Amino acid sequence: MANQDSITGSHPPSNDDLAAEVAALRLLLAERDAELARLRAEAGQARERRSDFLGMLAHELRNPLAPISLANTMLAKLPEPSSGLLNLHAVIHRQLQNLTRLLDELLDAASIDSGQLVLARVPVELGAVLRRALHTVQVRILERHQHLHMDLPEDLSVHGDPARLAQVFANLLANASRYTADGGTIRVAAHAHEGRALLTVADNGAGMNQDELAGMFDLFTRGTRATVRAEGGLGVGLNVVRNIVELHDGKVIGASDGPGRGSVFTVSLPLLVSDGAQAALAPGALPPSRRILLVEDNLDANDTLGQLLLDEGHKVTAAYDGIAGLALARTQVFDVLICDINLPGLNGYELITQLRRTAGAHIPFAIAISGYGQMEDRTRAIGAGFGQYVLKPIDIDALLALVASSAVTRFIAAAAVGSGR
């Protein structure tokens, strides 16, 4: 037996030994689960801090950008501006666009990362979206004497967010221009295929190697192509493109035959089944004159925006804090309220809330303006009673169009009927 014991080894473990091992394993698993929970909580807190920081950063940077943008708009409106002045205006305008784009890309990346990017989807014609995208980048293309060829049928429609889709194609066009030499060629084409719209943006520029192709949609990835043309960028644009397209139930892929042989990006989106052609817009009348209350505590922004509105024929009353703005809104009749959110005394949320609670007060069409670009900021403003939320630096043409729009006219007419005026 002794020889047999030496062959088979020691006796099997007892029940007590097995129980101790199971207890030790359970303890290790509990410690692992606790560590994973702690890491997930820390990651969530870090993501929240990052989003808060980016939101505050965007607000603080947009505040000075707003009066600069408005002042630059006024430069071009001076009587008989010299060619030198117009050149300076163009330079400032381009750099403001670059700064605004960088801020928007950072905020979009944060919103996507936190799952807060929400689409406002409507039936949209892709040709119009592409032309809107081209408008944002065509100055860059013209400056570099690049040749743009577009083949866009007029009958491709999808169910999508027009602003976000325009952002997708503006990013792809800007990317193509950035990595294509002066005098190069960019081609944009679209067609239907098996129930989907296929849109391509192709260039004969720098191209990509296999490593760049593998990581081109990753966040904060620029690759060695960034050395081709140092125009700035955070390596965010293509990541935003991919996420917006996927939120539209679509797909985007990039391809290249190698360095120096150009690139092709293809976006695939599900087509919208049309139930009839959309009615054409009726030609608009002359822009109406509105009675506007402008509440903005930044003196430069208030003065420049007020002057631009006056130049368009509107009647403008200015207030520089929330308390004064609310007092004017309660005692006078205005068609439109343009109100900053971050005001002293009363903030914009409090102003519109208290105005709507004031018995007998006339409620104007309310437009919030703010440097905060997160979705919860927009949702809070609309929930408080604003009809529109406009991000700084203000697109003055879009704001003027909104003020003069038929939506505001209908709002004013309904308010007049409701008040018996």
From TrEMBL:
Superkingdom field: Bacteria
Catalytic activity: ATP + protein L-histidine = ADP + protein N-phospho-L-histidine
Keywords: Coiled coil, Phosphoprotein
Record has DNA-binding as a keyword: no
Coiled-coil region list: 22-49
CDD domains the record matches: HATPase, HisKA
Domain Histidine kinase, first and last residues per copy: 56-273
SUPFAM superfamilies in the cross-refs: ATPase domain of HSP90 chaperone/DNA topoisomerase II/histidine kinase, CheY-like, Homodimeric domain of signal transducing histidine kinase
EC numbers on record: 2.7.13.3
InterPro entries: CheY-like_superfamily, HATPase_C_sf, HATPase_dom, His_kinase_dom, HisK_dim/P_dom, HisK_dim/P_sf, Sig_transdc_His_kin-like_C, Sig_transdc_resp-reg_receiver
Listed Pfam families: HATPase_c, HisKA, Response_reg
Positions bearing 4-aspartylphosphate: D340
Annotated ranges, domain Response regulatory: 291-407
Transmembrane region(s): none
Protein name (Swiss-Prot/TrEMBL): histidine kinase
Organism annotation: Massilia mucilaginosa
